[in-house]
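Ticket opened by: R.M.
Priority: normal
Category: complex prediction / small molecule

The reporter submitted a protein together with tryptophan and asked that the result be attached to this ticket for the collaborator who will pick it up next week. Submitted input follows.
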Amino acid sequence: MIGEKKVLYSGMQATGTLTLGNYLGALKNWVGLSGEYECFYGVMDLHSLTLRQDPPAFRKNARSLYALYVAAGLDPEKNCIYYQSHVSAHAELGWLLCCFTYMGELSRMTQFKDKAAKHADNINAGLYTYPVLMAADILLYQADLVPVGVDQKQHLEICRDIATRFNNIFGDVFTIPEPYISASGAKIMSLQEPEHKMSKSDENPNATILLLDDTDTIIRKFKRAVTDSEHEIRYDQEKKPGISNLIDIYSVVTGKSRAEIEREFSDGGYGAFKLAVGEAVAAELKPLQARYQELLADKAYLDARIKENDEKAQYTANRTLRKVQKKLGLTERIR
Ligand code: TRP
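Result attached by the on-call engineer:
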């Protein structure tokens, strides 16, 4: 708790460009939360280093992610939006918590196994301890709630296990975070293989809508979306995953229910429906893209918010870090 409000913590890796899936599944839902919660959102650049990054592109991507958070509607004066690497407490607590995490636990992480299989030439220790750094992110801010998708649930579980283990030895140091399940969060699937989640690392460019794609590109990608050989626009995730995904996307963007959408397109074919989804998505993203360009052009504004929020994050994080260091018996600084 900070004051009367519960603390909510989340973030995304600063790698590549965000997709429509990141936006509709996470970012868009974060926007409404700042009134009710004290919100911290990290640009998770330290986590990105578990894969090789090209330094200039990486720096650009991190700033782009910061601007996209703001362009999507997260007010940087009401939410603490900051760079993970600007708050050194993350790396420090990450180390300390490594000493309270077992190899066996980390070996069971499905994301580690998946990523190790995918990047067999670079199975580094950072990839292995990734969940410990993520636990440090969350615990430094004494977060009560963490909005995460299903793919991050196991990471939140290990965070809770580490925090509970630490508290059992040293007393009430960390708040044990709960997953935050949003009412409207949508899981957006690939446009080419609708059985799989839309992912920014997909090699097929037609599978993902990028947040910065222009209108023509968006419409073209939806036109090419994989569906089925029927003609009926009906929600059925098992038998019609492609059409169901399009219905979900259209539903989140327009606010219409699945049933309403089925009725609206009951006598149109797939072509007309795909076009409608493409146009609706393009219209939804237009203002965000315009705001994004404005933000990148206004260096002074963005830099001022980054500086302010870095300091706010440092203050909160250092308070927890000092407490942990003291509990562990590390010698206090001489003032
Ligand atoms: N691992 C998360 C992802 O890839 C990103 C992340 C890092 C995160 N630290 C976090 C998410 C802390 C929530 C809380 O999506």
